[in-house]
Amino acid sequence: MTMSRRSSFDSSFSERGISLVVVMILLVITALLGIAILRSSMMQERMSASVRDRSVAFQAAEAALRYAHEDVLGGGAWDTTPPAAGSACTAAGVCPTGAAAAWVRVPTASYNFSQAGLAAAPEYWIEYIGTGPARLGSCETTNVTLDCQSPIYRITARSRSDGRADVVVQANVMSRIPDPGA
Fold first, then answer.
1. Beta-carbon neighbour count of residue 176 at 10 Å?
2. 34, 136, 165, 171: most buried by Cβ count inside 10 Å?
């Protein structure tokens, strides 16, 4: 009889040790899962911040492109007098063919850069790249500009968002030719 008591005591003592080991293993597994989830969420946070920075930089570069197209090319006589070869770039950033890039910042009055989270104001430069066919019907008038050709400009704009995203956008623009008789 004493033997049966002793064997039941030994088996319950050994079961307590196994349950401690099982609980410790489950605790380690749970901790490893928690660390993996934490790392995953940190990576997703960095990715979403990067996407946001790129989006802000892209929007600013597009705004610089629009500014150069509308205000700079739209405000001068660039449709009738393109920059001459060998001349220097203008203060507005319009350069002749083959000239080195002359980056011009978009004025702060046109875009609120600090509120957008940009490191600096977006920049643009405009290069005259030649002439292309004019608008249909422009050669039939007596006041034909540039021998029935329209100047073509390449606008390059860039923006930087707090060191995380650099965006460069480019567009080729054919100048506007006024309607005949207008």
1. 12
2. 165
